[in-house]
Every structure is written in structure tokens, then in C-alpha cells.
Amino acid sequence: MNLELAGKVVIVTGASQGIGLATALSFAGEGARLLLAARGADGLTAAAAAATAAGAPQVKTVTCDVTLDADVDALMATARQHFGRVDVLVNNAAGKLPAGDFADISNEAWLAGWNQKLQCHIRACRAVYPIMREQKSGVIVNVLGTAARNPKASYMPVGISNAALFNFTKSFADLCAPQGIRVVGVAPSGVTTDRWTRLINARAPAEGKTPQQLQAEIDAALPLGRMAYPQDVADAICFAASARAAYICGSVITVDGNSTQGVYL
Predict the structure, then answer these.
(1) Distance between CA atoms of residues 5 and 7, nearest Å
(2) Which CATH architecture is the domain 9-255 placed in?
(3) What sign has the CA pseudo-torsion 176, 184, 167, 117?
(4) Number of helical (H) and strand (E) elements in the chain, helices listed first
């Protein structure tokens, strides 16, 4: 299947590890030109080398903390300067969200958590929107999470942030679609990344378990017998951004191995 991504300019945030890195390599294999962003320069150097080896004809990196307006504005300025356009933004980067006992999470931690997930996605969308509006084209893929549809008391800030992003993705798509811009969400369940490990370590004590016990319970309950790999999510992201998904807009593609219960319209 030809995804028609060759030569497209793709920004991937959080590109140095996990879902972001897997996504960058998938786009590279399709011949896309890449602007990779992450906070750590060393990780970006390795990611750029891997993307070049995977087939990307052009790779540029920018150190970027998506919790900072100035960094995100500089990322988009780099895109304009080096590529002249942005065809795809993969809005993947997110920082550390609080988890654990509700009574132990301070108001300050809640507010900081919004900036680590919710506002990061909104900030990047606001920065890329003028570019895509001027082009009258583009695709924004927001990487969300199925915690939005699976509330847990020990996981509350994560679920609430993702639920807000589901709503944002649809409302932003309503704004963007008449201007030729597609906005799509991709929502994985648990993925085997370093971020997941941090979340499990924070969540387990609130449930009276060790991280190992909680992880074993999660694995045992999954219909496919395993958590998602980063590549599982990366493949869905590439499809969502491609010409083969040209009429998918405002929707959230769930990548959860049938672990989400219920039917959502």
C-alpha cells in the first residue's frame, strides 16, 4: 500500500524514544522528510542517525521542551526555515503526570500535570495552525491515551488529561477541517515504554501492590496477552497521517488490543 508520504515534511515531538522514535522510523521508511524534536540532544542525535538509516532523505533535529512556549515557537520557525512547510505534526511529547493516592496529589501537581500533557498538545497545535492554515493543508495527529475512557482513582490526572484531549481533538478538527487540515487522534492503551514504567511505579502503591504485581495483573488481563509495542502505535499514526486516511478527521483511532470495554460513538 502506497501511503503517499514520500517527501512530506513531518514533525515528531518526543522523537528520541518510545512511540515517538518508532513513529519517526516508520515515517523514515516511507521516505518522509523529518524534523525531530525532544528535550535531550543526545537522544535526538541517535534518533536522527536511525531515521537516516531507515530511509529518510532529510532529517533535522531541534531540542525542544514542549512545556515552553518559546521552544515550540522556535520548533515551528525551524520548520519554516529549513523545509518551508509542515505537512504532518505528530503531537506525541508529554512529560510526567502525577499518579497515586488522590489525597497525596497537591493542587500544584495537578496544575503542573496539565502543562505536561494537555497544554503541551494545545501549545503545539496553536503553533503549527498558522502554517497549515496558510498552506490550506496538513495533518495533525494527537497521540492520546485510552485512560480517557477507563477511569481509575489511582490514575486520575492521566485519565482526565486524556479525556480533555479527546474533546480538544474533535473541537479542533471542527475548526480545521474547512481549511483543509485534518486533525486525528491515536489512542493506545498501555505501551511498553519508559514512561509507562514510571506510571506503574507511581500507581502501584495506591493500589497496595508492588509494580511487578500490578504489571503482572495488567498483562494477564489483556485479550491479546501483551501490552502494545511502540511499533503498533507508530503504524497507526503513519496510516492516520497518510493519503489512505484522507477522509478520517475528528476521530480517535484506538490501538488497545481490544482492552477497552464498551462501545463509544
Answers:
(1) 6
(2) 3-Layer(aba) Sandwich (3.40)
(3) negative
(4) 9, 7
Coil, strand, or helix at residue 226? coil
**Helical (H) or strand (E) element with 82:** helix 69-83
Residue ranges per structural domain of the chain: 9-255
Q: Where are the beta strands (DSSP E) in 16-164?
A: 33-38, 59-63, 88-91, 138-143
**CA gyration radius for the chain?**
18
Phi, psi of 2 (to 5 degrees): -90, 115
Alpha carbon distances (Å) from 3 to 126, 168, 212, 242, 245: 27, 26, 40, 5, 9
Question: Can you say whether residue 150 is alpha, beta or left, with left for phi > 0 and alpha for psi between -120 and 50 degrees?
Answer: beta
Query: What SS3 class is residue 114?
Result: helix
Confidence of residue 263 (pLDDT cuts 50, 70, 90): low
Name the residue type at position 202.
A
φ, ψ (nearest 5 deg) of residue 237? -65, -45
**Residue 133 near residue 179 (C-beta atoms within 8 A):** yes
Rounded Cα gap, residues 152 and 199, in angstroms = 13
Sign of CA dihedral 207, 213, 214, 220: negative
What is this structure's pTM? 0.90
pLDDT band at 264 (very low <50, low <70, confident <90, very high): low
Which 3 state secondary structure label does DSSP give 59? strand
- DSSP character at residue 81: H
Q: Where are the alpha helices (DSSP H) in 177-262?
A: 194-203, 211-221, 230-241
Q: How far apart are CA 84 and CA 76, in angstroms?
A: 10
pLDDT, residue 118, reads 92
